[in-house]
Amino acid sequence: MPAIDAPLILTLSLDERTFGYFNALRQKHFPPERNYLDAHFTLFHHLPGPAHDDIAAVLVARAQAQRPMPMRVTGLQFLGRGVAFALDAPEAEALHRELQALWRAHLTPQDQQRRRPHVTIQNKVTPAAARALHEQLSAGFEPFEATGTGLQLWAYRNGPWELLRSFAFGA
Predict the structure, then answer these.
(1) What is the average pLDDT value for the chain, to the nearest integer?
(2) What is the DSSP letter of 4?
(3) Which pTM was predicted?
(4) pLDDT of the residue at 1
């Protein structure tokens, strides 16, 4: 593949049912003029584009050795100007730490931090709108099981993301 001239984003793919649920909420509640992409679980926000081939090689090997990852959607997070679903995802966090150690020299401060796994379904709204949605969704929320099914590598294109490659677990 030719050199990638954009930062790379790495996400965890979710099972179809969970993705559909989160994405429907995102389409309904995210401001349409800012909603460039589907619901997603971000592992890394900014990997170096020129290292694409090396990163992809690591992801091919890692995904082949990985079985689908169980996780639990545990609640909602109020983000101030948005709402996210909190995830308890120990295997995803272990994978994140493993890749952090491998790529440490290339990571931004944001990607060097410990993460709080989540899927954002609303952002860039007024605090009042975010609080109202948080209260509405929290009122009937019941924790549920979800599954991480693979990895996706994206190029960030100043708003829209371009899917470069998917890596199914156990493929």
Answers:
(1) 93
(2) P
(3) 0.93
(4) 56
